[in-house]
Specification:
4-stranded parallel beta sheet; 11 strands; homotrimer; alpha/beta
Chain lengths: 469, 469, 469
């Protein structure tokens, strides 16, 4: 008995299935390139065992606990910490049982496929998770986690990861990255420069963060030049720990290109703490253009992840804080929003800006037309809720005809759920091969070309877009 | 010869078709649960014969006459009444012929499938409707309607309807529901509380309606507390006629959560007749939150049907009034619009708010992410123009991966075309089984689970979401 | 060896493929009706040879050169002229090689299919284009172009074009159309009235253009009545060269219906050169309603092509001017935008307004509901980036269920790439037949009806909507 179908996600029609399987056979065992994600570098620095099944699969995975919450399970019963330090469930087995009893809620979701893939291929389980098997699962996974071959570095190697990028804030001292390097371990784990906390005036503690940025770099971050130089210094520091990319999680894709004097005045305004929403938006927008200019200088690839309304529920945010499954997408425009930045640097062939979206209406209407014209632009893979079979299918169908394959940037797993990394890359490889099989069978692509494209989508484009060679 | 293909809407690939057929076999004969619709309770109270084929199939069905109008047939030639009482076609056979001659206009539409299903399965016809068969059809259907087994109650029973909800305005005396109950007939027909006429300041006669609400309930509806108490009283009255749900048809999904003093001032403003569009919008928004609070008290499920620009054509509205096929959807946002209500009551596990949309871009971007997090939210089935094979396919593909099946609310037929009810439920069952077959065949769902889900989507989820047990 | 698969774009499942092939066999050889496009009438007036492969396939085709630019090829290296007359590549063979070496960039795009179709079916080539075959291709195509049977009129006849509409500005003297007529050649080439340069206050040289319109017509175009009469005169002139349609390329679909006095004041304002963006928008909107009124008088079909943000890149526009692949779509609303015009003339059965969109979200939400109600409205085929297999599939899936087939207007190739015309019509015919085959196989359309619909979509609806009988 197996939890996963060896032909999963392939088309059903026999000729199509054969084509998809053949394409997949050519890319299944390629190394994993993970150029954007949220794993904790400490795992690889300390190489300690993962604590227990609930902390591995439930508590940190907002895909998982949000579904349980949506069906009436209190967050506290799932062990999600409270900001006031108040009591939450601490028995990992109790949390695991709540999850196991409700595993049917995930039917038809990518979470179910990722979890089943991890259960079967990482932990060797072969019976479906349910109330009945909850304890067996718990005991078995817990026993595995106690073994050396289930420690982070061993799994990293077993997963065939060639390179894994984590994401750290601009103020991070990168101590765990330093420890990884000093450990002599050969695994390639690099950081990514994510400056939201010192770029977004609406971020908690923004002014203090900017002051700390000044202390770290010896720059006067109350002046525009000093503030920009401080970013340059931190980017250089991040590059010294392997960073090849920056990442920007803004509420919108808006960019600006203000004269330096106006930018300086805006910096003073947002540092004063007394600013309007429009000024905060303009400042974030100006910083995207500045980051693009710095990328032209230092060669870092720039990622823009816009459009999430973070912390949608005020009571949940007050009780549990950020990143608790209540980040909800909204309409996101690109065509007007990106114009100032693109007018400034968009035609530069040496710049790479990777665009993501949580608003799929932009794929065909704005993103593919933009990426199919500006040499600096590439489209990132389907993000977050759209990192799924149907999401990938829509992405390819809505973008390929306008910007082709070579203006896209390969796959990102974008996850903090370490054990799901092989599962996520496998879903992407299968979904892309299913799409390519359809093109071949309908005379839109030769079979030879399809094999080359499959390899590019799996491996080469991610390395190229993120300059990971 | 048959008008309908026994394998209609199933996938064509033989293995997929076999799976879909098997899933459908398990749900085809389940009772019909119709928790939201617009049938006239008088039909079941009086049990009189339906007057003629044109009044059964053409005149009251805006799906049908709007298509004929779009190809140049004047509304008056179809017998649609004029608000000025001016002359319109009164010969039902003439109207029927206009329809029959143009039946090809419906090719590829759900209306064609619903109509063919009714013609074949309700009336036993087996030749396609056309100019040639128009009179034969007319005579045959008319003869059927004269028979006792084609009266409303007989059809209700023959259709296998377990429960049918109608929709009445807040001021309705529910006399027909009273008559049904007093008749001793066993059919379960319940009402639904639809207070738009006393909640929407832009509704014709709003202030007079609110005054009448006061008279009906003995409350002073010029005060905020009295106005809310009047709603409470009417909700209780509706519940005494079986209502388990309220329904709200607003131009947008906007909600508000104002302090009582501000709400009271806003009530005075909108009752005065001198108010801005923004104030009308705020009042409607406030009332959605109030209705949600009342639902927490009395247990009624709340439905929100936003986003239709009603009566788009000014000349058609002037000549023929409301509900004449000129209600056109527009962009509809949920993420910002619902936040005030959700911050107030969204995390309550005992509240059920069912969200509908006419803007499919919201399925994946906003609705599934919201329903996959808030315990109070469920997604209603595809509504209106999207109650169709392709509409259901898109709904499932765009929502399942994010919020699963169990945050959806089963099927609604939402119709005033009584004879189409079995056809509509059949289309939904087939479309869902087709989708589930695809999941099974691509390794995304076990066949055992698919059978359980098919049953849930057909029967259990509607009863649960509408508390119809 | 062939470049194109004889079963391309047909479904893969054998039964479906057989159905699609059979439907396609019935329409494959129908004459081409091309009611909207951008071919140069001079080609047919002079019947000179096309200069070389690069000028035929690369330099004028923004689909082609934008993709090369997006991957870092400078526009100047592709021979795209500079507005300052500065140097650009002039060697057509060098340009051709740049294109040939990068032909893999087009994998999966409609451009690749159109090009391969032209290479094989117009020029008889049978090896894939690549760096290796670049010179062979160049020499072969160039040799063909020197032959009489590759001159414009010969190709027009070989392509089976029954009628071809070009598009000329309101100030054009139509000399090439006159020359075609006087030549005695039997090919039917008609013009289309495109008045953007004298209707859009943001157009370069608007006031001078309007003055020239006055000179051409002897009307005082500084008065509202004179300005409208000048349009009437030019429409009549265009009709004398076969025009049956007008075309309007506006940034939005906004319409207005102002009193004449306000319209006159607005005309004065926009002619003065000192006006706001809102006034320019209102003027364009008013002119759409005026054009609709004139269409009621003179019977011309009206086309609205809204929603492109033209010349998105300021540096590219400054260096190379208009129509250089940097026109990017944006969100486009119809429901509110069209209401003034539709309230004025929308219910007129003798008016035909064909709506296009670059925002696919409007198909199901706004366009199909509008076209399924207003007798004056028809939906144009998928436009620009969406003129493709997937684009046509989405168009049919999103509109048919709501407005049927008979509120759509057949196919437009909308191209200036003459050799791609047969390829584009072939893709549309195949894509529609693939869609219809799916309807037949799933019991949504009889096979007999499908053959009739295929013929209508290929031939009859375009002739009818554009009154080309």
């Amino acid at each position: 008995m197996a939890l996963t179908d060896p032909d999963r996600l392939f088309p059903v029609e026999p000729a199509l299935r054969g084509l998809a399987r053949s394409l997949y056979d050519g890319v299944r065992d390629l190394p994993i390139v993970s150029p954007h994600g949220h794993c904790d570098p400490r795992w690889f620095a300390e190489n300690a065992r993962f604590p227990n099944p609930a902390e591995l699969f439930v508590i940190p995975d907002h895909y998982v606990f949000r579904m349980l919450v949506s069906q009436g399970v209190p967050m506290t019963s799932l062990g999600v910490p409270r900001t006031d330090g108040g009591p939450v469930e601490t028995d990992p087995r109790a949390i695991w049982r709540l999850f196991a009893e409700r595993f049917h809620l995930f039917r038809g979701t990518p979470s179910a496929m990722w979890l089943d893939h991890s259960f079967e291929h990482v932990f060797g389980l072969d019976q479906p998770l349910s109330a009945e098997t909850a304890d067996m699962y718990y005991d078995h996974i817990d026993a595995c986690l106690a073994r050396d071959d289930f420690r982070p570095r061993a799994l990293f190697e077993r997963f065939g990861i060639e390179v894994l990028a984590t994401t750290e804030g601009a103020l991070d001292d990168l101590r765990w990255h330093r420890a990884i390097r000093e450990s002599g371990w050969a695994g390639r784990v690099v950081t990514t420069y994510r400056p939201d906390a010192v770029v977004d005036p609406d971020f908690e503690g923004f002014a203090a963060n900017v002051a700390q940025l000044g202390e770290l770099t010896g720059e006067d971050t109350t002046t525009w030049d000093g503030y920009l130089d401080a970013h340059r210094a931190r980017r250089e520091y991040f590059r010294s720990f392997g960073a090849t990319a920056t990442d920007h999680g803004h509420p919108s894709a808006r960019t600006e290109n203000l004269p330096a004097m106006d930018a300086e005045a805006l910096l003073r305004k947002v540092l004063s703490g007394s600013f309007s929403p429009a000024e905060a938006e303009a400042f974030r927008g100006q910083m995207l253009t500045e980051m693009a200019r710095m990328s032209l200088d230092d060669g870092m690839t720039m990622q823009i992840h816009p459009g999430s309304r973070r912390n949608h529920s005020a009571p949940v945010f007050a009780r549990h804080g950020r990143d608790k499954g209540f980040d909800i997408p909204g309409p996101t425009g690109y065509v007007d929003a990106l114009k100032p930045m693109l007018d400034a640097v968009g035609m530069e062939p040496d710049l790479t800006v990777i665009l993501f979206t949580l608003d799929e209406t932009a794929y065909g209407r704005e993103l593919a037309p933009l990426a199919g014209a500006y040499p600096s632009l590439r489209l990132g893979p389907p993000w977050w809720f759209f990192d799924s079979y149907e999401g990938i299918k829509r992405f390819r169908e809505l973008t390929t005809e306008t910007c082709g394959f070579y203006n896209t940037a390969g796959f990102n797993d974008d996850t903090r759920a370490f054990c799901s990394i092989p599962a996520r890359h496998d879903v992407a490889r299968r979904s892309d091969c299913a799409y390519l099989a359809g093109l071949v069978a309908t005379g839109r692509l030769s079979e030879t070309a399809a094999h080359e494209v499959a390899h590019d989508l799996t491996y080469r484009l991610a390395k190229q877009a993120y300059r990971l060679d």
